[in-house]
Automatic annotation (TrEMBL):
Heterotrimer of RecB, RecC and RecD. All subunits contribute to DNA-binding. CDD domains: DEXSc_RecD-like, SF1_C_RecD. ATP binds at G195, G196, P197, G198, T199, G200, K201, T202. Pfam families: AAA_19, RecD_N, UvrD_C_2. A helicase/nuclease that prepares dsDNA breaks (DSB) for recombinational DNA repair. Binds to DSBs and unwinds DNA via a highly rapid and processive ATP-dependent bidirectional helicase activity. Unwinds dsDNA until it encounters a Chi (crossover hotspot instigator) sequence from the 3' direction. Cuts ssDNA a few nucleotides 3' to the Chi site. The properties and activities of the enzyme are changed at Chi. The Chi-altered holoenzyme produces a long 3'-ssDNA overhang and facilitates RecA-binding to the ssDNA for homologous DNA recombination and repair. It comes from Antrihabitans stalactiti. In the RecBCD complex, RecB has a slow 3'-5' helicase, an exonuclease activity and loads RecA onto ssDNA, RecD has a fast 5'-3' helicase activity, while RecC stimulates the ATPase and processivity of the RecB helicase and contributes to recognition of the Chi site. GO terms for cellular component: exodeoxyribonuclease V complex. This is RecBCD enzyme subunit RecD. It is an enzyme of class 5 (isomerase). One of its GO terms (biological process) is double-strand break repair via homologous recombination. The keyword DNA-binding applies. Belongs to the RecD family.
Amino acid sequence: MTAVQLAHRAEGVLRTFNEAGVLAAADVHVALRLQRLGGETSDSVLLATALAVRAVRMGSVCVELQGMSEVTVEEPDRDIAALPWPDVDDVVAALQRSPLVIGSSTGPLRPLRLVETDEGELLYLDRYFRQEQTIRHVLDERARSRPKVDLAELSGGLSAYFRDADDPSQPSQAPDRQRIAAALATTQWTTILAGGPGTGKTHAVARILALLLRQHGPGLRIGLAAPTGKAAAQLQEAVSSQADILGLPSGLTAMTLHRLLGWKPGSASRFRHNAANRLPYDVVVVDETSMVPLTMMCRLLEAIRPDARLLLVGDPDQLASVEAGAVLADLVARPAVGVESAVLTSVVEADLTAADDPKEAALSAAERDRLRDGVIRLSRGRRFGGAIADLAVAVREARTDEVMRLLASSSSAVSLHPPDDLDALRDDVVRSAAAVTAAAEAGDVAAALDEMERHRLLCAHREGPYGVAHWAHQATAWIGAATGHPLERMRWYPGQPLLVTVNDYESKIFNGDTGVIVKGRDGSLLAAFPRAGNPVLLHPTRLSALQTVYAMTIHRSQGSQYDTVSVLLPAQESSLLTRELLYTAITRARKHVRIIGTEEALRAGVGRQVLRASGLRRPVGNSVW
Ligand SMILES: Nc1ncnc2c1ncn2[C@@H]1O[C@H](COP(=O)(O)OP(=O)(O)OP(=O)(O)O)[C@@H](O)[C@H]1O
């Protein structure tokens, strides 16, 4: 059990909620500070303020006051409902009078914002409300006009780039959502290209760039970015690998969003590029957008020129950023506000109206509606088919019985093991370590890196009996017992799996990169990291933050895939065990996903959703105090 950190100065209701683990010491401190500065005396307002701070800490953008008591805490046996929750109407009334709330009649300092919606009031820290408003405003402004397009050129391009995979002499069969995505991105300023792993998002992005080059010529300035260095490197590799066949410029580089926007040392949220100094690109592509938090999305949208195309790419069903906001999921789920595009309809009418095809279902009315805002979701799996994809979809759609049925089926691609059934896991850990070590000892860098992709052990937690630390230790012990060489005492050894935890721009090695120690030609030990065609080799002491990684958190594994993934489920009460977490873990596997845990834990996970409160996905026109 984790002891709750208590705020020393907390009294009354704040103390009670702090002791119960609902509020952290930091939430209490902020609320008390604002109370002092604003001269607020109401306990209800204090509690609501602390809950608004807590909400951001937990990844939400605001608190839904009607549901403010529906919180989960780390210690599952706490009776949260029994806490002295104030009446919601009283809280709202107190907030409307509070000097801390914008629009109230009194008070010099107004850090809070109360917003009324059809589903009840939302309480924001005003800063996040303003960021949400900026995002909404910029996107709505961008949707008011459309780029000029050479339609003949566009039709020619669509027909050239979207061919039937089995018979390239023919255009692909309608409906082809990739073709719709490409037509959208050419005919609108903003496109949101959503889809699960292997649905061909990057394939479509490369073709979209080719279409835009046909429209605008080789002078088109392209900015490629992603939230992490690793994701940026992957985007660059994926686009570069298609550059030749599509005639894209060679040497296209992708960078982190921080770098794209011009990160200023010492400022976490202010960038060189902003509304007054816009980004120089004609098209900006952001990959892995699910990991982009609200503040970063706001800064990006402020900095992008109104006449630059923006392509936001990602999987809205994956775990969101650790910071506040699940912007991609919100933008995909937002009610449509844009108007239908006759140009788009004319270019891809066959795709919009086609009936079900064996490979791809017809577009639903809801999907057609979302096209008005530039939102398209790719659904046809291009990489892995069968049971893994079915399991991922069943988890995403919370069809628990179907999840259990798939795991009980005879498929060799998915399996569920009780917590004490560890033989297959141990075999995979030992076999994969032996193969990596053999290649690393032989100095075969490519083979060592390939072998690293065969199996990955994933955990929800970092600490505790279900955590990475414990299971990495267990894996090390299994490997040591199998080889007769205990690994713990060695600093560097061939076959040692590595995880980088800090960006190193000079070496182009990024937080989240994984690699392996290999023997160099002269027998010295080097850290190897995969890069398309050309692995990076460095002396391990050149990198300041390297960990040995026999197990990894599911959060960390985002953006990577492995042949076999073993997922260790925590106890069913764990608030980390959610549908998004399971979906993310399952979709890391190419050939086999092995889930280790109880059926109860799995059912609990499928049933639990990460509810990140925000106003972005609600209809506009709410009255605001
Ligand atoms: N229309 C297509 N025709 C033929 N092959 C395709 C098509 N679309 C995608 N592919 C292939 O399917 C595989 C997966 O595509 P891609 O990498 O673009 O998916 P993704 O959605 O970007 O996946 P991830 O999110 O995991 O990076 C790739 O090998 C790609 O070349």
